[in-house]
Amino acid sequence: MKPQRLLPALLLLAAPAWADETAEICAEAEERYVELFGQPSSAVEDAEVVLMYKYNFCPSELTVKAGTTVRWVNVDKRTSHSVLLKDGSQPESDRLFPEESVELTFLTPGSQDYLCGPHWETQNMIGMITVEP
Fold first, then answer.
1. Cα(70)–Cα(48) distance, integer angstroms
2. Is 52 helix (H, G, I), strand (E, B) or coil?
3. Is 71 helix (H, G, I), strand (E, B) or coil?
4. Which residues lie closer than 8 Å to 56 by C-beta, 6 or more apart?
5. What is the pTM of this model?
6. What is the SS3 assignment for 46?
7. Which residues contact 121 (CB under 8 A, 6 or more apart)?
8. pLDDT tens sequence across 34-43
9. Closest Cα partner for 62 from 50, 46, 47, 45?
């Protein structure tokens, strides 16, 4: 066996169990989005979509070009969420109830951590946007 083939196999074995759980949750979130809006989130042309579902941001990390609008959409059935930029450059969004969304346009290159105001401490609901020039 060649060493380069062994490394990916070892990485898979070392992957934390929560990674699989998060992937499953994000797949469910996408199914829910399609159910609600009739198209995949990737079909949205005027923004990059981040889904909020079961105390997760899907995807939790996103890289965009400067000037891109990011739209957070709550696809949960009963839980409200918010979006709060960790650097405090924007006020926390209103609570987003199921099927509601909020948008921010990112103009400045760099990394921007964000969180769900009511759920970041208890549920670790945190995400990151990386803005490229």
1. 5
2. strand
3. strand
4. 22, 25, 26, 29, 125
5. 0.84
6. coil
7. none
8. 999 999 999 9
9. 50
